Amino acid sequence: MSFPKLFCETARGLPAKRERRKEARPGELLAAALELFVEKGFAATRADEVAKRAGVSKGTLFLYFSSKEELFKAVVRDNISGRYPGWAAEFEAFEGSTADMLRYAMNSWWTSVGATKASGISKLIMSEASNFPELAAFYQKEVIEPGHALIRRILQRGIDRGEIRPIDMTQAVHIIMAPLLYLVMCKHCYGTFADESARLVPEEFLATQVDTLLDGLSLRQADNVTPDRKAKPQ
Amino acid sequence: MSFPKLFCETARGLPAKRERRKEARPGELLAAALELFVEKGFAATRADEVAKRAGVSKGTLFLYFSSKEELFKAVVRDNISGRYPGWAAEFEAFEGSTADMLRYAMNSWWTSVGATKASGISKLIMSEASNFPELAAFYQKEVIEPGHALIRRILQRGIDRGEIRPIDMTQAVHIIMAPLLYLVMCKHCYGTFADESARLVPEEFLATQVDTLLDGLSLRQADNVTPDRKAKPQ
Amino acid sequence: MSFPKLFCETARGLPAKRERRKEARPGELLAAALELFVEKGFAATRADEVAKRAGVSKGTLFLYFSSKEELFKAVVRDNISGRYPGWAAEFEAFEGSTADMLRYAMNSWWTSVGATKASGISKLIMSEASNFPELAAFYQKEVIEPGHALIRRILQRGIDRGEIRPIDMTQAVHIIMAPLLYLVMCKHCYGTFADESARLVPEEFLATQVDTLLDGLSLRQADNVTPDRKAKPQ
Amino acid sequence: MSFPKLFCETARGLPAKRERRKEARPGELLAAALELFVEKGFAATRADEVAKRAGVSKGTLFLYFSSKEELFKAVVRDNISGRYPGWAAEFEAFEGSTADMLRYAMNSWWTSVGATKASGISKLIMSEASNFPELAAFYQKEVIEPGHALIRRILQRGIDRGEIRPIDMTQAVHIIMAPLLYLVMCKHCYGTFADESARLVPEEFLATQVDTLLDGLSLRQADNVTPDRKAKPQ
DNA sequence: GATGAATGAGGATTCATTCAT
DNA sequence: CATGAATGAATCCTCATTCAT
Lengths: 234, 234, 234, 234
Known about the structure:
4 copies of one chain form a homotetramer.
Chain A: H1 2-12, H2 17-20, H3 25-40, H4 47-54, H5 58-64, H6 68-79, H7 84-93, H8 98-114, H9 118-128, H10 133-160, H11 169-189, H12 202-215
Helix pairs in contact in A: 3-4, 3-6, 3-9, 4-5, 7-10, 8-12, 9-11, 10-11, 11-12
Chain B binds a DNA duplex through residues 16-22, 25, 46-48, 56-60, 62-63, 66-68.
C-alpha cells in the first residue's frame, strides 16, 4: 500500500491530498478552529466548518479531538505560549525613561500580540470563560498573572527612579491593563460595531493613552510650553 | 379542591395557575431574561427557561415579546439605554468641576449599571456580537453611541471651562470607556479569573482611574512641570 | 342590569358595542370565517383572526362553536342553500333553443354563484374535502347531485328537440361541469397565480365555451358563412 | 451481532440502520413526499413523517433537501415539469392530425400525470397556493406556463394546417385545460364525492371531450350547417 | 355571557457525534 | 486512517383551546 502512494507522490510532484500532511493535521485543525472560534464564538462555530477550513472531513476532526469542547481547550492551550521570558529579559536591560519604557512595552505588546491572531485568544477567553472555567483558570495563571508581573516591574522601576509617583501597585496594574484589553475587544468586535467616526487607530490610541497615563488630561500652565502634544482641538 | 389552593396561595405565596397579571408580566420576564442572558449568553438561553424562571409558560413569553431578539432588546432598554435621558438631564444641571463630574458620572454608571446584572449585557454583546449582527447594531445605536455622546459632553464642558486641555475627542472618549469595559469584563469573568491578590475594588479603581486620568502617574514637585519629562529621547 | 343597558342604548342612540348584535354573533362569525377559510384555507385560518373580523374576542368564538372544525362545518352548511328550485322552475318554462338555454344557465350560475362568495364554498370543499369527508358527502348530495340533474335536464331537452346529438349523458354532464369548476378554481387562486397574459374573463370564457361545446373547434366550410364568431386570430 | 443483522437484511429485506445509499435516497424521499403531500397537503405533512416513510431519520431528509419547500419543488420537478422536454420533443415530431394529436397529448398526460399520484400535486397547489405564495409562483412558472405553451403549440399547428378554425389562443388554452383540471379535482375528492352513477371514466371522458371539443355537441345533418343555429334570438 | 391572558402540544430545522465503508 | 452519510436531541415559535375574571 505504501508503494503506490510513494509512486503517486513522486510521479506527480504533488503528494496526494490525503497524504500530504498527515502529521500536520492537528495543527491545521487547531489553526482553523482558532480562526473560527475567534470570529464566531464557540457555540456558533460548526465542526463541519472547522474541518472544511482545515481541508479534512468532519469525521477526521473527531478522530483527533474527541469533542468540540476538547478542540476548544486544545486551541486555547496551543495558543497560550510564553512570550514573557523574552520580554522580561528585554525589560531587565532597558535603559530609557519609564515613559519610553511604557511606550515600548505597549507597542511591543501590540505588535506581537494585540495586532496578531494571538489577541483572538484573549477575546475568546473573555467570551467563553464562564463556559470553560478550567481554561479560564489556566489562562489566568499562564497569561494574566505573568503579564501583571511584567507591568508591576516597569512601574516599580519608575517609582524607584523617581519618575512615577508612589501608587497602589495593584490598581496601577489594572490601569495599564484596561486600554490593552479595550483594544482587543474593539479589534475583535470590529465590523459588527462599525462606527466609522469613532474608529480607533491602535497605535495612536496607545500613544495617547501613555501620554495621558503619565500626564493626565488636566490643563496646566506648563501645557502652553509643550507644543508636541498631539491634541487636535476638537 | 379550593381549600388546598387557598392554603397554597397564602401559605407559600405561590400563585395559582393561570393567574392574570398583565402588568407585572413584562417586568418579571425582563428580570428573568436579564439573569439568564448574563448567566448563559444569548444563544444558550432557552426561551422556556426564561419563561419558567418568570413563573409563566413558554407561550406567555411570546405573548409579551415577539421573539427572543425583541426580548433582548427590551432587556437592554430596560437596563441601560433607558437610563440615558436621566443622566443627560443630571449632566445638564451639574455645577461642579470636571473632576467631580467625571467621578460622579462613573460612580453613577457603576451604581446603576456596572455593579448590577445589567453590566452583563455589555459582556454578552462582546461575546455574541458576531452571531447576532442585528443585536450588535441595535446595541451600537442604542447604547454605545448615546454613551459616547454623554462622555463627549462631559469632556467638552471641561475644555470649555478650561479644566481639560484640548484633546482629540474620539480618543478621549475611548480613554474614558476603557476602564469601564475593563471593569465589566473583570466582573463577569469573575470566579474563574480569581486572583485574590490582584482583585479589583471597583469603586476604588474608578476613583484612582479618574485621578490618574486627570493628573497622570508622573511624579511632579509641587505641581511644577519638569520640562525634561516631556522630551521624547527615543 | 338590563335597565342601565337600555338606558345606554337609548341615550346614546348607538347600542353599546357588546350589546349591539348579540343574536347576530353566530352569523357574523360564520361570514368572517367563510371569507377567511376561502382566502387562506382551513389550516391557515387562525381563530383569532376570525374573531377579530367578526368584532368579538377569541373566547367568544369558542362560546358559539366548540372547535375550529365545528366552525368550518357550520360555515359550509350555512352556505349551501338551495338555489336549485328556482332554477328548476325557470328551466321548466324556458322556450328558446338549447344553445340559448345553455348560455342562459351558465350566465345565471356565474351571476348568482360563480361571481359571488358562494363560489368560495366550492373551492373550500375542493380543498378540504379529504379532511372533512362528512362535509364532502353532504355537499355531494346537496349541491353536486342536484346540479347535475339540472344540467341533465337541459341536455335531454336538447336531444328531445333534435338540437343536440344523442350522447352519453353522464359524460356530457361532466363536460358541462368542467369549465364551471375551472372558473371557480381560477377565481380563487387568483393573485397567487397571476399570469396577466393568460387572464380569464369569465363571461367571455363561458360564451366561448358554449360556442365551442356546441360547434367544436374544427374548421369547416360553413365557418366562412358565420361572421359573428368571436375568434380573434392568434 | 453480525448474524442477526444479516438475517434481518436477507430475511425481511429491512435495511440495517445507518445504511449508506446516497444515490437511492433522493428518489425514496421524493416518492414518500409525493404520497404524503397528496394525502395530507403541504402544510399538514410533517417532515418526520416523510423521513419515516422513506425509512430514514428526519435529519437525513434535510441532508438532501434544504427545506420542506425545496422538497416540494423537487417533487414537482420529478413528477411534472421534468416531463415537459420529452413531450415537447414528441410533439415536435408528431405527424398525425390535430385530432389525433390532442387525443395523444391528453392520453399522455393522463397516463404519466393524471392517473398517477403526481396529479395530486395540482390539487394540492389549488388548495394551498394562498398559504405558500412562493410555491404557487414556482408552480406557475415551472408547470402552468410551460404547460400552456405546449397546448398553444398544438393548437397553432392545427390552425396552420387548416384543421382548427382561428380562435383566441388564450381562451382556447383554458378550454383545453378545464377538463384536465376537472379530472384531477374529481380524482382527488374521490371517495368522499362518491356518486357511483355519475362516476367518470377518465379515458372515456377525455376521448369524448376531444371529440366534443373538435366537433361540438350540436346535431348536424351530414355535416351540413344549419344556418338558424347561429342566430341569437335573445 | 364575554373577555383575553395563559397554556402547552406540535413541528421545522440545525448540528455534534457516530459508524459502516 | 479517513470519509461523509446518517442520526436524533435540542430549540424557537405558533395557535387552538381553556378558564379566571
